[in-house]
């Protein structure tokens, strides 16, 4: 059997970002609206700081307005709620992203619930979760949205496919399953308590790994010819002492020999998340102003 096709998420994301920049320019030119995103980072977790910086850079590169907010790790829940209320009320801000995780004195659910659902470009607010679950228009979480775009680009229609999602997080696993169901897949959500996880994975025409455990999904868990989407980003020791490298939740070299198509790590799903955040911000800006998304 031939080796799997490598799904180039970086190239797809670059094209999507260019299209979103064009949309943002049209909205500005035709309606005088500059789509704006406020990204809020509380504390100084280095990985979160990198993610937020990359998101803000991408917003600026797409010709959109970026409203950065950095708060100290000692910020209280009341202070963060006050900032969210201010951003909700600001008409120049169409998207609000509060980077997770938050320091332990802050209840993340209360913060997620406080974001105006119309500005919730993460798609985490219960109103948007409910809209996705019931097939209504809302804002969809960026990582699963990006995964769906890669799957549809790779396979065309997903109708009738057996899809297995490994992982049941609110950020990826659950919304991913909802999107696959909406695309008429037969969906299984597997997790750490699933009995005979390898056998469940082997049923999948589409296998989405989102567990956060380095190289957990092995080559012999994959149905020959399946499409494998690896959402994992795990830092592990590298070949040289003191060096590290990024790996996914799938053992890539083994999987590549069996799958029909597979996303690499890095360069697969990761770049799609930011591109989808930009797309959601333009969508949110248009809906808030009652204009069509170009
Ligand atoms: N932390 C990890 N992933 C995400 C994400 O997609 N959005 C936010 N706000 N925080 C995260």
Give a description of the structure.
The protein has ten helices and eleven strands. It has 294 residues and is of the alpha/beta class. The strands form three sheets. The protein has a six-stranded parallel sheet. It has a three-stranded parallel sheet with strand order 3-2-4, with helices on both faces. The termini are far apart. The model has no long low-confidence stretch (mean pLDDT 97). It binds guanine (GUN). Guanine is lined by residues 97-100, 122, 142-143, 171. Guanine (GUN) binds next to strand 4 and helix 6.
Descriptive keywords:
294 residues; alpha/beta; six-stranded parallel β-sheet; three-stranded parallel β-sheet; 16% strand; globular; binds guanine
Short summary:
The protein has 294 residues and is of the alpha/beta class. It has helices at residues 9-31, 46-61, 77-89, 108-114, 126-133, 142-155, 173-182, 197-202, 252-256, 270-288; strands at residues 5-6, 36-42, 65-71, 95-98, 162-166, 186-190, 206-209, 227-230, 234-237, 244-247, 261-262. The structure holds guanine (GUN).
For the termini, the CA-CA separation is 43 Å
The averaged pLDDT comes out at 97
Strand numbers in spatial order across the main sheet? 1-11-8-7-5-6
List all distinct small molecules, including ions and cofactors, that are bound in this structure.
guanine
Helical content band: 40-55%
Low-confidence spans: none
- DSSP summary, beta strand count: 11
